[in-house]
Amino acid sequence: MPYIPHTPDDVCAMLDAIGADSIEALFDEIPAHLKAAGKLDALPEGLSEMEVTRLMNERAAMDAGAVSFIGAGAYQHHIPAAVWEIATRGEFYTAYTPYQAEASQGTLQVIYEFQTLMTRLTGMEVSNASVYDGASGLSEAVLMALRANRKSKSRKVLVPTALNPRYTAATQAIVENQDVALDSVAFDPASGQTPLDALKPFEGQDYAALVISQPNFFGSLEEVDALTDWAHANSMLVIGVVNPTSLALLTPPGEWGAEGADIVVGEGQPLGVPLSSGGPYFGFMCCKQKYVRQMPGRIIGRTVDMEGKQGFALTLQAREQHIRRSKATSNICTNQGLAMTASTIYCSLLGPDGLTNVAAHCHANTQSLADKLTAIAGVERAFSAPTFHEVVLTLPKPAAEVLAALAGKDVLGGVSLATDYDMPNAILINATEIHSESDLDLFAVALKEVLAA
Amino acid sequence: MSETQLIFQLSQPGRSAVSQAPKALADDKLSAIPAHLRRKQKPALPEVSEMQVVRHYTNLSSKNFAIDKQFYPLGSCTMKYNPRGANRAAMLPGFLNRHPLAPETHSQGFLSCMFELQNFLKEVTGMKGVSLAPMAGAQGEFAGVAMIRAYHEARGDEGRTEILIPEAAHGTNPATAVMCGYKVREVPVGKDGDVDLDALKAACGPQTAGLMMTNPSTCGVFERQIEAIAKTVHEAGGLLYYDGANLNAILGKVRPGDMGFDVIHMNLHKTFATPHGGGGPGAGPVGVSERLLPYLPTPMAGQRDDGSYHWIDTDTLETSIGHLSAFMGNAGVLLRAYYYARSLGREGMIRVGEFSTLAANYLLKRLEAVGCTAAYPDRRASHEFILTFAKEAKELGVTAMDIAKRLLDYNQHAPTTYFPLLVPECFLIEPTETESKEALDEFVDAMAAILEEARTQPDMVKEAPFTQPVRRLDDVKAARELDLAWSE
Amino acid sequence: MSEIPAELRYASSHEWAKNDDGTVTVGITAHAQDAMGDLVYVELPEVGQVVAAGDEAGVVESVKAASDIYAPVSGEIVAINEALEDEPELVNNVPYEGGWLFKIAMSEESDLDNLLTADQYQAQIESE
């Protein structure tokens, strides 16, 4: 019996102690006609470890082998070997929520260190222990802004069209039942940025917050200082959505404009978490200290034990569902502990210079890739704004067609913007530090062939 | 005491783990980024060597209790063995390096696993459709209640503003209902742990959108009136939500679909043995009856007539409640659950409910025999049960918290304490099917010893633990003098 | 048994109310703070906010619990105890003095008649 240790003698002894004739007798409170006996026939027979491993090896191999230039919210980076070797140690992997703080100091201290790392990267005062992912993190940030902005009576938030559309969609799905409206701010089709002009129509109106994405979905860098100051001048909070790798190079949101962003969220995946088909990732969430009681999710504090020794504990729990129930800041009751642990180890291994170098290579490789691809006749940059590590290119043919042909050559050439932006010939591409010069050339050669065909 | 230092305290300017990152680039490579958007100072990440990092986090890991080290009987958490094979399989390069937006031509292996997992979960729960999208139990709850809302709205049934929740329910239930725009009405629970059916009947009406409940309930007993409850809620026009927190108790024995539930979520990190990871990530797939199929969250895996697999998304399922994450949820967790399901197969799946129930009933009887007080002594335990130490608290001044802390000294993780709220000074204990009889007996011995200590040296018990990296922590200081990030 | 000053009026939700010429000072009782344990945070209403008797007007938090504070009388909030921001423990230490929460300019004097007397409140907590 997989994973069940009891011998027949054990079972007899246990039933004796209970005073029951059979295991079936333990289910005597369940109405007989509800029982599932015979109803699970569609399930396959169990397999040994060797057999399941072989099966899953075959499945995994089916998806391997391509060179990918897809970004759009998830990025391939080199992950040092130590990161997951340590994160999957049984002591981290098989522990639960640190309810018994004395027996969970490992997990608790890692979270405290993670919170510290996130505040330093973002330039914010406090961080929580992470939420599910970047997109759902934004939904939590929107709800938090409604609670935190006491000057605003509205249930509305301004969201740029140039924000990752997957973030907008997930946020919409999560907040719409609470009568929250997300109003769109247009982008400039020439620069690919969110211009101040696009905010003019909303001047003086009551919105709880403005979302600013840096870089935005197109990879373009926004004029974050001006946007931040505009929001604050209009009594809105600023929710920054940022890529953590980029923060090694870019102004941290805590320093945007005169007062800095109020809430910052983002996808933590680039910090040591594999692509893994979309998860598990983690969303990071930071804010100004004055809003900490409105922040959802788990938060760890440093304190002392009864002998005065340093220790770490869950704190501010009165915000959370297990105490506040229907009045909690959110229904969230976990963090993405393992992914967050991995990112803490990743950031420690890279350090300030290492992360800066990763970010610089991402930027330089993407610039180089864009140069190689735009050297092909009919391929052009779609926007004029400076970019971090993603670029939108327009092609002389429909993107869907080109991407399919590239995939046939095992080159995953980015994502099409046809559906989300009505730009049928546009692709969004990304390169990171893992792409070698020959990878970039491979893409250029393949694209040239496909366009010539 | 180097091991209690923070990673930041090990930092020295100029030190680094050089081989972990690419070499520095000349600054002219960054000239395309305008100076006013550039960071003025490097982020103050620790500057440490590779070995310092490895040693620091390895030492920190040793300060945790974990299933791999200890009996970990947290009630309603299902801390069963997490097969190592599942971890290895989920971390195969083909899975790990697959971009979530990779085209279907480069996704058939992954999609096939997801499609099969959806079918396995449908079969064991008796539901008509399953979406794997929710990233945790709480998000599964959200998806479930959002679907209930979408269903009523699609019918133009607009007066339904309330979700009913038994008072013993987990706090996520009411928090979720509010996130979905509902008011919460609590339903009392009787002395035997079952819902007060008369009170439920009185609470049901045209304002009822649905009822959220677990079965077995958070009282650790099977809700015997489940069919009457389903009938009452359905007759009022409401839908029935099954919180899968306790699915392990009935896996292979009873299916929520057969009990009349319209929508359920499952916690794969409980029932399907994926790791808890110190508090996550989990996965909270949802299953639905026929009438809620149009509202399932996306994306889902589908299969074409030619056998190939594809994504089902909002472009074709326009009535879906939509995406709950940027991509498709916690894929890596789902792969681990897939491994577990294939490993158990039909026979193994049936045994989960049987042996988890056997372990709980055995542990309950043995604990009662050494002087513990059951909260519901006349009931069968499900896969978990409640003890109450109200007597010890009153007579000896030793609380459930004190006993929990003392258990740590006996190298036993404490059960869930002070939940459900309606039982004073309680433990909710869930041993799971993967613990040996010897492990259960050791826990009984520890509890017997602690009860004796509570009688003979209560002051000592009240100061426990003594053997952990720290003694009891000052929670009040932690909350009053917030220190949430290190500063030098 | 915790202190229940005879001159105050009480809400069944454990607030006390003290009327000075139409300005009612509100706090929580010694019994209530004792049941909550060490308070770590007090969330207060905003000055100028208008409340009806029975409205939520704040929250007191301990490490393990949070409890809503209800306005015992209707009126406008005219003062809040700002000292509690840094010293929530005042509510534990001196619940009827330095631990007061807020003051209401009462709009309906008759609201006071709906509150309990010290004896009635004493009887209530004995029966809990």
Please explain how this structure is put together:
- The complex is a heterotrimer of chains A (453), B (488) and C (128).
- Chain A is α/β, with parallel strands linked by helices.
- Chain A folds into three domains: 8-56, no CATH class; 67-78 and 352-452, Aspartate Aminotransferase, domain 1, CATH 3.90.1150; 81-344, Type I PLP-dependent aspartate aminotransferase-like (Major domain) (Aspartate Aminotransferase, domain 2, 3-Layer(aba) Sandwich), CATH 3.40.640.10.
- Helix content of chain A is 36%, strand content 15%.
- In chain A, 63% of the residues are buried.
- The mean pLDDT of chain A is 96.
- Chain B is α/β, with parallel strands linked by helices.
- Chain B folds into three domains: 2-61, no CATH class; 85-343, Aspartate Aminotransferase, domain 2 (3-Layer(aba) Sandwich), CATH 3.40.640; 352-463, Aspartate Aminotransferase, domain 1 (Alpha-Beta Complex), CATH 3.90.1150.
- Helix content of chain B is 37%, strand content 10%.
- The longest helix of chain B is centred in the C-terminal third of the chain and has 39 residues, at 331-369.
- Chain C has a single domain (13-106), classed as OB fold (Dihydrolipoamide Acetyltransferase, E2P).
- In chain C, 17% of the residues lie in helices and 34% in strands.
- Chain C contains three helices and nine strands.
- The relative contact order of chain C is 0.25.
- The chains are: A alpha/beta (453), B alpha/beta (488), C alpha+beta (128).
- Chains A and B meet through α1, α2, α3, α4 and α5 of A and α1, α2, α3, α4 and α5 of B.
Concise overview:
The complex is a heterotrimer of chains A (453), B (488) and C (128). With 453 residues, chain A is an alpha/beta fold.
Give a topology summary:
The complex is a heterotrimer of chains A (453), B (488) and C (128).
Chain A: H1 8-18, H2 49-62, E1 67-68, H3 81-87, H4 90-93, H5 105-122, E2 126-127, H6 134-148, E3 156-160, H7 165-175, E4 181-185, E5 209-214, H8 224-233, E6 237-242, E7 263-267, E8 283-287, E9 300-304, E10 310-314, H9 321-324, H10 337-374, E11 380-381, E12 390-394, H11 399-408, E13 411-412, E14 415-417, H12 418-421, E15 423-430, H13 437-452
Helix pairs in contact in A: 3-10, 5-10, 6-7, 10-13
Chain B: H1 50-61, H2 84-90, H3 93-96, H4 108-125, E1 129-131, H5 137-154, E2 162-166, H6 172-179, E3 183-187, H7 197-203, E4 208-213, H8 226-235, E5 239-244, H9 256-259, E6 263-266, H10 268-271, E7 286-288, E8 300-303, E9 309-312, H11 331-369, E10 385-388, H12 390-396, H13 400-409, E11 416-417, E12 426-429, H14 437-456, H15 458-463, H16 475-480
Parallel strand pairs in B: 2-3, 2-4, 4-5, 5-6
Antiparallel strand pairs in B: 1-7, 6-7, 8-9, 10-12, 11-12
Chain C: E1 9-10, E2 15-20, E3 23-28, H1 30-36, E4 39-43, E5 50-51, E6 56-62, E7 66-70, E8 75-80, H2 89-93, E9 102-106, H3 118-127
Antiparallel strand pairs in C: 1-2, 2-3, 3-9, 4-6, 5-8, 6-7, 8-9
